[in-house]
Automatic annotation (TrEMBL), chain A:
This is Iron complex transport system ATP-binding protein. Keywords: ATP-binding, Nucleotide-binding, Transport. Pfam families: ABC_tran. PROSITE patterns: ABC_TRANSPORTER_2. InterPro entries: AAA+_ATPase, ABC_transporter-like_ATP-bd, P-loop_NTPase. One of its GO terms (molecular function) is ATP binding. Residues 2-234 form the ABC transporter domain. Belongs to the ABC transporter superfamily.
Automatic annotation (TrEMBL), chain B:
InterPro entries: ABC_BtuC-like (IPR037294), ABC_transptr_permease_BtuC (IPR000522). It is a multi-pass membrane protein. The lineage of its organism: Bacteria, Pseudomonadati, Pseudomonadota, Alphaproteobacteria, Rhodospirillales. Belongs to the binding-protein-dependent transport system permease family. FecCD subfamily. Keywords: Cell membrane, Membrane, Transmembrane, Transmembrane helix, Transport. It comes from Novispirillum itersonii (Aquaspirillum itersonii). The chain crosses the membrane at residues 68-85, 97-118, 124-144, 151-176, 196-216, 223-242, 248-273, 285-307, 313-332. This is Iron complex transport system permease protein.
């Protein structure tokens, strides 16, 4: 459904993403993992068509993204960014309602169907009770859920999520990922929690220094070897009877600089 | 429910605007009652033939009505520009002059009035319009070079304004005598007394086209709530919208400023005041801001004529003197609400 072919993107002096090719099948839940700064958010921006790649193409059902009018694209593809803030006084319902934008023309009046759609999206993220609350009074997790509700109200086929479980408590983290999976959408989600990636993803893509290190089913991807190489952590990976991976971390090795500093401190 | 309330507010605003127009045309050195104003207008528009004093009719039609309509156009245009710029630049301090427009206009006006640019053929207004558009072009170019982000646009605007204000001050300090300097200052603070029908004939169409463009984009403006990349993700062609709406605001503002001087405060404060009451939805915010801006400026003009008998206070002084306390009250009330 969504194909990336040899994507490259960078700043003037520095390549940030290099030669990334992957195909996301319809209905699939793809996890995007990698250390901070490995290029997850940048890749999502390319996949969403927000940035033009310097090399390569992104295709949606075979059509290159630049050939799809923005509004039509937004009817099919929704993105929840890592950080999106506003100073304005708006309600949760207003924010979720923005998701209807690509479905409404300049003078199409807001219809009861739109309201129903927004209500449904709010209910899905458990925010219906807070619908009329002010944005400024929301907790970080509530804001995150409001953004997801906005994306769901867009009624997309494809959902791109940048760290959707950021700020959420554990119940909402699991609930949200489960909910997203239940929608039957195609999902690409940047995730930090590898156990979540193992639990929910059909396939996982690993980014390392802007390159696609591996792309495949969790059991193949999440090996102690790779975790050590990419994330610099020691971990034990157990596979349970259902074939699901569980990762237990050992006490993280201290980064060399920190270790040196601590030694220095101990000497004083 | 909300839509009903909004329709009522719009209707009420329309009626208040009509009343304000009647008052604006009635108040002055000789006070003329509203029914005479209506009759005079009817006489002119539909040859109604009401028997009223032809001098009154002349005063109303040739001076006061054009002036009052111009005040309404300016108020509406500046307020709408303010709404658009605050949304697109995501900066609550953005106002129609943030793009260097009023600074450029004053430089243009001064260049014509004091340096004799245009050889006496070009009017001060034309000079101001040219200066305003020139400054706007300069600011946009600078912003494009500096990185295109909203903050850069605002910074480029500040830089451009400073530059053009400095040129104005330089020219005034070098070439103006005391009398001229006073005249220039007066122009800078806003002055509607020279307005005649041809001015309205330009301002009104510009306002209507500009407002139509902005109203066409109300949904799109809503989508900028979380910034431009978020808007793009919602299906907005960000670049096209920027060019269209910033261009429209700039032209509206430049035309208004070139005819009446740079009246401060309206474009900054009216949108905020309306937002406090009506919320951030542009479908409501834009039309209500236009109405409030128009009414506010008509009243400010009336006050500026009536404040000191036999003397006109610059309207920019009135807008600030009246507007600032009102806005302060609104801010305090909005906080506790
Ligand atoms: N607009 C930009 N200007 C400068 N550098 C950028 C820009 N966008 C991304 N980068 C750089 O590209 C690299 C990848 O950034 P990106 O945000 O994609 O990482 P990420 O994998 O999402 O990280 P995180 O886990 O912290 O969210 C980083 O080193 C970042 O500094
Ligand atoms: Mg990121």
């Amino acid at each position: 459904m969504l194909t990336a072919e040899h994507l490259g993107w960078g700043l003037r002096d520095r390549a940030i993403l290099q030669d990334i090719s992957l195909t996301v099948q319809a209905g699939e839940f793809v996890g995007l993992i990698g250390p901070n700064g490995s290029g997850k958010s940048s890749l999502l921006a390319l996949l969403a068509g927000l940035r033009r790649p310097d090399h390569g193409t992104v295709r949606l059902d075979g059509t290159p993204l630049p050939a799809i009018p923005r509004r039509l694209l937004a009817q099919r593809l929704a993105l929840v960014e890592q950080q999106a803030q506003t100073q304005e006084r708006v309600t949760v319902r207003h924010v979720a309602g923005l998701g209807r934008t690509p479905h409404l023309g300049a003078f199409t009046p807001w219809s009861p169907q739109d309201t129903a759609c927004v209500d449904q999206a709010l209910a899905a993220v458990d925010l219906l009770d807070l619908a009329d609350r002010d944005w400024s009074g929301l907790s970080g997790g509530e804001r995150q859920r409001a953004h997801i509700a906005r994306a769901l109200a867009q009624q997309p086929e494809l959902l791109l999520l940048d760290e959707p479980t950021n700020h959420l408590d554990i119940a909402h983290q699991l609930g949200l990922l489960d909910l997203v999976r239940q929608q039957g959408l195609t999902v690409v989600a940047a995730l930090h929690d590898l156990n979540h990636a193992a639990l929910f993803c059909d396939r996982i893509a690993v980014l390392h220094h802007g390159r696609l290190d591996a792309f495949g089913p969790p059991a193949e991807i999440l090996t102690p070897d790779r975790l050590r190489r990419v994330f610099a952590v020691d971990a034990v990976v157990e596979t349970d009877a259902d074939g699901l991976c569980h990762i237990r971390y050992r006490v993280p090795r201290r980064p060399p600089m920190l270790a040196a500093a601590q030694k220095e401190l101990a000497r004083c | 429910m909300i839509r009903l309330r909004f329709s009522l507010a719009l209707l009420a605003g329309g009626l208040v605007l009509l009343a304000a127009l009647a008052i604006g045309a009635g108040v002055g050195e000789t006070a003329i009652p509203p029914d005479v104003v209506l009759k005079a207008v009817a006489n002119r528009l539909w040859v109604a033939g009401y028997p009223i004093d032809p001098i009154d009719e002349g005063v109303i039609w040739s001076y006061r009505l054009s002036r009052t309509l111009m005040a309404a156009c300016c108020g509406a245009g500046l307020a709408v520009s303010g709404v658009v710029l605050q949304s697109l630049l995501r900066n609550p301090l953005a106002d129609p002059y943030v793009m260097g427009i009023s600074a450029g206009a004053s430089t243009g006006a001064v260049a014509v009035a004091l340096l004799g640019l245009g050889g006496g053929v070009v009017s001060m207004s034309a000079g101001a319009l040219a200066g305003a558009l020139l400054a706007f072009g300069f600011v946009i170019l600078l912003a494009l070079k500096a990185g295109r982000s909203p903050v850069m646009v605002v910074l480029a605007g500040v830089a451009g304004s400073q530059l053009f204000n400095a040129i104005t001050s330089f020219v005034v300090a070098r070439s103006a005598n005391a009398e001229q300097a006073r005249g220039i200052l007066f122009w800078l603070l806003g002055n509607l007394s020279g307005v005649r029908w041809p001015d309205v004939g330009l301002a009104l169409p510009v306002l209507l086209v500009g407002m139509a463009l902005c109203l066409w984009h109300v949904r799109v403006l809503d989508a900028f709530l979380f910034g431009s990349s978020s808007a793009a993700a919602l299906g907005v062609s960000v670049r096209r919208v920027w060019v269209t709406l910033i261009g429209a605001s700039a032209v509206m503002t430049a035309v208004m400023v070139s005819m009446v001087g740079s009246i401060g405060f309206v474009g900054l404060v009216v949108p905020h005041a309306v937002r406090l009451v009506a919320g951030v939805s542009h479908g409501r915010l834009l039309p209500l801001s236009a109405l409030c801006g128009a009414v506010f400026l008509i009243i400010a003009d009336v006050v500026s004529r009536a404040l000191i008998t036999g003397q006109v206070v610059p309207i920019g002084v009135v807008t600030a003197l009246v507007g600032a306390p009102v806005f302060a009250l609104l801010l305090i009330r909005g906080r506790t609400a």
